[in-house]
């Protein structure tokens, strides 16, 4: 099975590198400044998935006809999903599967709108990755296995094959029949922690402070109201049960992680806030549900984006 990783940042390089080290055909598509060191020196992976250097990794700055993948792992930022799908269209076949391993809500819908639901799968990754230097990725923390699922909830032969390949390559993964529930669960986690880590410049563990967690509580309460109005089924019956899960099960194993949004802010880059807390704001307006805390979070991150971008040389 041939894999193409579209948007090979830290997560994409880690997944692609593990698959390549496992003997599978992989092409990494990413920015030239990140791909060139991999081509010249190989890809170094360290951290909780083990230490390895993968030589002769195939890299490119854009997908080409000769790549012809069986499976695309889409790991771009959520605001780049549509552009990435359009770039993929000329080089994939009618049987190619595109799996979103991205943050946020709505990526699978964008992919399916252009390629069809039958060529789209959803994924949920709740593992931390950091690009220590071009060509060097550390897998830092993990709160769960990667979940992969068909949009219609069926457990298909192709889904089980992909998950088996992931596990064989050292990527802990699981096939699920409720991927949308997992995606919403990850979005709750991200919306609660990602922006506050960026605003306060702290790791996730520091957000257990009572003042920070009081903000998290309001973020989650608004998200649950919106999900109920939208008819979204969640794993938890009420926000307090989720907050207990977040406090006792999710934050401890990822306590030292600093959010990708914080790294984006520090580098003067655009964040994914519109696909995280911004989704709750938009759906709240749709259903006439006030979401003042999530809206304040969105505005705060947008302010930081503009402030730091204006200070970049």
UniProtKB/TrEMBL annotation:
Protein's recorded name: 2-dehydropantoate 2-reductase
Keyword set, alphabetical order: Coenzyme A biosynthesis, NADP, Oxidoreductase
PANTHER family: 2-DEHYDROPANTOATE 2-REDUCTASE, PROBABLE 2-DEHYDROPANTOATE 2-REDUCTASE
Gene Ontology annotations of biological process type: coenzyme A biosynthetic process; pantothenate biosynthetic process
Gene3D superfamilies in alphabetical order: N-(1-d-carboxylethyl)-l-norvaline Dehydrogenase, domain 2, NAD(P)-binding Rossmann-like Domain
Annotated family: Belongs to the ketopantoate reductase family.
Residue ranges of domain Ketopantoate reductase C-terminal in the record: 178-304
Record's catalysed reaction(s): (R)-pantoate + NADP(+) = 2-dehydropantoate + NADPH + H(+); (R)-pantoate + NAD(+) = 2-dehydropantoate + NADH + H(+)
Claim: Protease is one of the keywords in the record: no
Domain of life: Archaea
UniProt pathway: Cofactor biosynthesis; coenzyme A biosynthesis
EC number: 1.1.1.169
């Amino acid at each position: 099975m041939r894999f193409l990783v579209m948007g090979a940042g830290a997560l994409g390089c880690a997944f692609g590198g593990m698959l390549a080290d496992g003997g599978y055909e992989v092409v990494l598509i990413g920015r030239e400044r990140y791909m060139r060191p991999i081509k010249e020196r190989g890809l170094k992976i360290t951290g909780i998935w083990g230490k390895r250097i993968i030589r002769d990794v195939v890299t490119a700055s854009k997908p080409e006809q000769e790549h012809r993948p069986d499976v695309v792992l889409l790991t771009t930022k959520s605001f780049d999903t549509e552009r990435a799908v359009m770039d993929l269209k000329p080089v994939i076949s009618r049987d190619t599967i595109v799996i979103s391993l991205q943050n946020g809500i709505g990526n699978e819908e964008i992919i399916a709108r252009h390629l069809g639901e039958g060529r789209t799968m959803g994924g949920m990754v709740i593992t931390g990755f950091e690009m220590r230097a071009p060509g060097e990725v550390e897998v830092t923390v993990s709160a769960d296995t990667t979940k992969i699922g068909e949009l219609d909830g069926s457990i298909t032969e192709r889904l089980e094959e992909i998950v088996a390949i992931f596990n064989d390559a050292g990527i802990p993964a699981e096939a699920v029949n409720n991927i949308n529930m997992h995606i919403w669960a990850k979005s709750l986690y991200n919306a609660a922690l990602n922006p506050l880590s960026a605003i306060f410049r702290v790791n996730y563990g520091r957000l257990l402070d009572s003042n920070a967690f009081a903000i998290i509580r309001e973020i989650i309460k608004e998200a649950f109201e919106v999900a109920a109005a939208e008819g979204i089924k969640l794993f938890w019956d009420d926000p307090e049960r989720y907050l207990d899960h977040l406090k006792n099960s999710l934050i401890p194993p990822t306590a030292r992680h600093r959010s990708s949004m914080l790294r984006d802010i520090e580098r003067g880059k655009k964040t994914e806030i519109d696909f995280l807390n911004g989704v709750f704001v938009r759906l709240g307006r749709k259903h006439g549900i006030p979401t003042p805390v999530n809206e304040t979070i969105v505005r705060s991150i947008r302010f930081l984006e503009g402030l730091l971008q204006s200070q970049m040389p």
